[in-house]
Amino acid sequence: MKKNICNVLVGLMLVITLTQCKKTSVNGEFQSDNSKMELVVLRQQTMKEVLSMARNQVFKEFVLSECLKQKHGDYNVYIKDIITNFKGNPDYEKGITTLEKLVSQIKAISDNREPNVFYPKAENIDRERRLSSVAQTQTNFLEEPVGVFQDVYNPDYSSPGYIVNIDNNLVFYDNITEEYAWDNDVWVIGEEENVSPENMIAAPEDLLSARTQGGAEYGGIIQCTDLNAIEHWTSGKLEFKIFILNSSGGQISVRAFGKWARKNFRDQKWKDFGHFVGNWNTSTFGNWMYENWIEEDGGSSSSITITMPPPTGQSGPTISTTFPSKNQDDNLGLATIQFTDNITQVYNISYSNIKRRN
């Protein structure tokens, strides 16, 4: 995106763009034009403080981690939670003190709506975490944070974006599109929507679930990303088998699922065999499990040796174990599933992805 910084006063830009808002009221109407303009000024001051602190990696990491939790159903964080986390930290003392005053003033004129920061890029990071075997929880901390205001946008639905310059003033940066915001360091300053309590909760498919001690764990869920590489169509149905072991290499379960028609796996559809692994207590299964998939093709007696290193960042020996097999069987590979992984995380093996559920 072109990055021309225009020397335009933010206050003037906000007055202009307010005429282009889709929503310029709270629960129907603001109390007066004066309160409307007061909210503009307060949002402007809030943005300046947030963007200034967003230049710090620790601050960005906190906001991102909070947004990924979706506590309020969206990828946002209440400013009051930012204040609680950084209050007493000398690096943020001035900004936090200012934000405390601003939060109180904004709530007083916005029907008690909670000021927040919405971070669109968290949605992409969330999706990448699900599709990757390596949990990604960071953003590009070298980017200059760009701020936009909630519900302030141009006729083409782009939103005026601002940065804090070397004089610690907000200046216009560029018009920010939705596509740009989802891939870059864009911070949306606004207030929480007053909606039904049921709509303050993320939909199940959007919520990254954490495991709990003793929670039910199901495996045997596979997506074939290259069906013919696993089993050519001339060979007909697929015959999958899995081996699940605990963190010490001890066997938890071995299961063959039977012959399944190719229609169950075409077009990269997920197939859930509904295999109950057990109730995962780390005291019994350990802090991680190993799950190995095989597509059986028969042949003469043979064996498959599985080598299991500890997960990255964990200590422990590399374990090897051997299972009886046939010489035509295809070993699709091993996934290491940690208790601390999100239950929706996707793991890549040969020509396939696998995952768990509770």
How would you briefly describe this protein structure?
The protein is an alpha+beta fold. The chain is built from 9 helices and 17 strands.
Structural class computed from helices and strand pairing: alpha+beta
Spatial shape: elongated
**Mean pLDDT score, rounded?**
85
Main-sheet strand order equals 2-3-7-4
* Domain module tally: 2
How much strand? 25-35%
Number of strands: 17
Q: Helical amount among residues, as a percent range? A: 25-40%
Order of helices and strands: EHHHEHHEHEEEHEEHEEEHEEEEEE
Largest sheet: 4 strands, mixed
Uncertain stretches of 5 or more adjacent residues: 1-31, 133-139
Radius of gyration: 26 Å
Task: Output the number of helix runs.
Answer: 9
Distance between the termini: 42 Å
Could you explain the architecture of this structure?
The chain is α+β, with helices and mostly antiparallel strands and 358 residues long. 25% of the residues lie in helices and 32% in strands. It has nine helices and 17 strands. The chain has a four-stranded mixed β-sheet. Strands 11-8-17-16 form a four-stranded antiparallel β-sheet. A hairpin with a 2-residue loop joins strand 16 and strand 17 (352-357). The chain starts with 5 loop residues before the first strand and ends with a strand.
Would you spell out the secondary-structure blueprint of this structure?
Layout: E1 6-9, H1 10-18, H2 33-53, H3 57-69, E2 76-78, H4 79-86, H5 93-109, E3 115-118, H6 121-131, E4 146-149, E5 159-164, E6 170-176, H7 178-181, E7 186-191, E8 215-224, H8 227-230, E9 238-245, E10 251-260, E11 270-280, H9 282-285, E12 288-295, E13 301-308, E14 319-326, E15 330-338, E16 346-349, E17 352-357
Parallel strand pairs: 4-7
Antiparallel strand pairs: 1-6, 2-3, 3-7, 5-6, 8-11, 8-17, 9-10, 9-12, 12-15, 13-14, 16-17
Helix pairs in contact: 1-2, 2-5, 4-5
